[in-house]
Amino acid sequence: MRYIGQKRRVFCAFIILLSGLSGIMAQQSANTTGGNAVSSGGSASYSVGQLVYTTFTGTNGSVAHGVQQPYEISVVVGVNEADEKGPKSTIYPNPTLDILILRVYDGNFYDLSYQLFDMNGRLLQNSKIYSSHTPLEMHNYHKAVYFLNLNYKNKTVKTYKIIKN
Fold first, then answer.
1. Which domains does the chain have, with CATH numbers?
2. Which residues pair with 15 in a beta bridge?
3. Nearest to residue 117, comparing CAs of 145, 88, 78, 75?
4. Cβ–Cβ contacts within 10 Å for residue 154, how many?
5. pLDDT at 125
6. Is 145 exposed, middle or buried (0-12, 13-18, 19+ CB in 10 A)?
7. What is the mean pLDDT of residues 82-100?
8. How far apart are CA 32 and CA 19, in angstroms?
């Protein structure tokens, strides 16, 4: 008798669990159409009729909410010297907390400048270089990845990826 009562309780629990899970749905959308577009240049997925798509952007990145999620791959290519007369340089400390030092080894600073960009491509700092050690104040910026372009004669000769802790 006791065994039959336990079996009923397990059966009832199982039925309740199944009825509760039947209403759960993952990502679902009633789109009018959609598909994939493929060519030699790449591919893209699309949907038409998606009800909600929002993107929240901050200094550390962005979050997308919706059925179609973007997947982006970006490559930063650093060119050591675009011109034979381009300067040799380095940055330190990287990662940094407060001050980043841009060190230029050549003595000619006449046509040198730098630009600091955030992940969204916004220009944060832009200045000429006047000495071999140029400090860049980073304490006002959030923890994120930044890009520093070293320019010689108005051409980018090197791009540094900077991590701000």
1. 30-73 (no CATH), 89-164 (2.60.40.10)
2. none
3. 145
4. 7
5. 93
6. middle
7. 79
8. 30
Q: What are phi and psi of 16, to 5 degrees?
A: -65, -40
85-91 contacts: CB < 8 A, separation 24 or more? 85/152, 86/152, 86/157, 86/158, 87/112, 87/150, 87/152, 87/157, 89/150, 89/158, 91/148, 91/160, 91/162
Task: Report which residue type is found at 67.
Answer: V
pLDDT higher for 89 or 66? 89
Q: pLDDT of 19-33, one tens digit each?
A: 766 666 655 666 667
- Helix (H), strand (E) at residue 46: strand 42-48
* pLDDT tens for each residue of 107-134: 777 889 999 999 888 999 999 998 899 9
Residue with tokens 């929240």: 56
Q: Which of 129, 136, 133 is nearest to 151 (CA)?
A: 129
